[in-house]
């Protein structure tokens, strides 16, 4: 029998409906693959094998008597940030040791409603803070990709590094992920997978561990544009439990995938041509422009003048919101507790012990910019800059631009323990320079693999869309995927 | 703007994160690197610009003010490291 784990989500779903194989067989194939690969890749922090087989058997029962639900019997990986009832949910942090929520996040409950099977929880940067998946309490995730003729281990990007690595290495049919500054799109680009961050408000945040509430949005990582579209349809929808959830009908995103780009206007922002950007990234961008033109799109240069201020504004807004959200981890209500001589001592020691270095740094920055005397100079100023960043986008969309094409990341995957980035936190932050504007403006953005660098590592392009127009992004990303025509399967070494 | 050692200690206290004496210098360097980076915003003219309060053009939804959930204290305390009779236990706060 062929290796079932090598099927796309769409092919697995169709094969199940045609009864070519059962969900139990498919799920077992994935569990076997995880058992063999996880000691090397560290993509999963918890595998829920028994529960997965139970879910798969239930799906097989439904498939035996009909078509089942849209994702019936399809095995997925879930980022450790999503609350899953009675199952490991720790945001890859020490401070949530042993936490098992008595409730299910809205997004995962929708996936189970649609028949999906959970394989386990995926590794990530602690509290989704990071761009390399090296801040996890459970250790770094390894990218299944390696440079040509090299055994050096590379990062999968972050914070959804476990999701990206697992999808790329065929350890799940697709995965959930979240994106606060680029945490879906950057790891997707670094692993040759597809990731979409939908418009803010499209997916419920209820039951997703909060990092920066005004920026956080969940979305899928999968192997193809079509697979991400199928996933997003199940993940989206109005939720009265999230006050920022938007009451809009959810389109059948998969129906938009083959729509093409004929007649669309694609903007190319000159501010994304960064100084010192590798030649290969520029060449990739030009190829993307060429492909979209060849399929009938009009391409025009645009200006988004406040682009360079998005990342500095983000490093005020995101830590400020994080310092507030993470105040709840106090050693009393759940997770890790250190003994203290009084209550303040208990708080301070538990938090010093339970949070990793990057998380503490961001809480400190956030506390500082919100403290008396600095609030206006930092936080209010950053929120004003955010208004300007959003206005830049509104202006070009009002001027007839349907979507914007940019590189997804400033480089391909880099090495584990990169010395430059360890020495200077700002260097690591620059990984998100092309993706963070999208969160600041609440827009949808998709990363799609489009080429490889000289070392054979995947590179991605990003498309940015109008609010709630994810359909155009799927259509344009599909044109890039099809035009590139590259098989983004890493050579198996694990 | 930059922070000195005393400020690092004060922020640690406000954030309820114990910063040991030996860690202060490293935090000071890192926080100043980040504050140096965000200082770029000084170049931006924001006169007359409203600070963003909602990224989507929507009014925060409200609901009727009534109890819709609850009544399961044992679930609330289930994950707590130390409890008694469905109460969270902490060191003595009032003498």
Distance between the termini of chain A: 21 Å
Q: What share of the residues of chain B lie within helices?
A: 25-40%
Tell me the strand order in the biggest sheet of chain A: 1-3-2-4-6-5-10-11-9-7-8
Shape of chain A: globular
Please compute the radius of gyration of chain A using only Cα atoms: 21 Å
Query: What oligomeric assembly is this protein in?
Result: heterodimer
Task: Give a short account of the largest sheet of chain B.
Answer: 2 strands, antiparallel
CATH class identity of the domain at 5-43 in chain B:
Mainly Alpha
Beta content of chain A comes to: 5-15%
pLDDT average of chain B, as an integer? 93
How can the largest sheet of chain A be summarized?
11 strands, mixed
Strand order of the largest sheet of chain B: 1-2
CATH H level, superfamily name of chain A: Amidase signature (AS) domain
How many runs of DSSP E, i.e. beta strands of chain B? 2
Number of helices of chain B: 3
Overall number of strands of chain A: 11
Description:
The complex is a heterodimer of chains A (494) and B (95). By secondary structure, chain A is of the alpha/beta class. Chain A contains 16 helices and 11 strands. Chain A has an 11-stranded mixed sheet, sandwiched between helices. Chain A starts with 8 loop residues before the first helix and ends in a 10-residue tail after the last helix. The mean pLDDT of chain A is 96. With 95 residues, chain B is mainly alpha-helical. Chain B has a domain at 5-43: Histone, subunit A, CATH 1.10.20. Chain B contains 3 helices and 2 strands. A two-stranded antiparallel ribbon of chain B has the order 1-2. Chains A and B meet through helix 9, helix 10, helix 11, helix 12 and helix 14 of A and helix 1 and helix 2 of B.
Keywords for this entry:
heterodimer; A: 494 residues; alpha/beta; Amidase signature (AS) enzymes; eleven-stranded mixed β-sheet; 16 helices; 39% helix; B: 95 residues; mainly alpha; Histone, subunit A; 3 helices; 2 strands
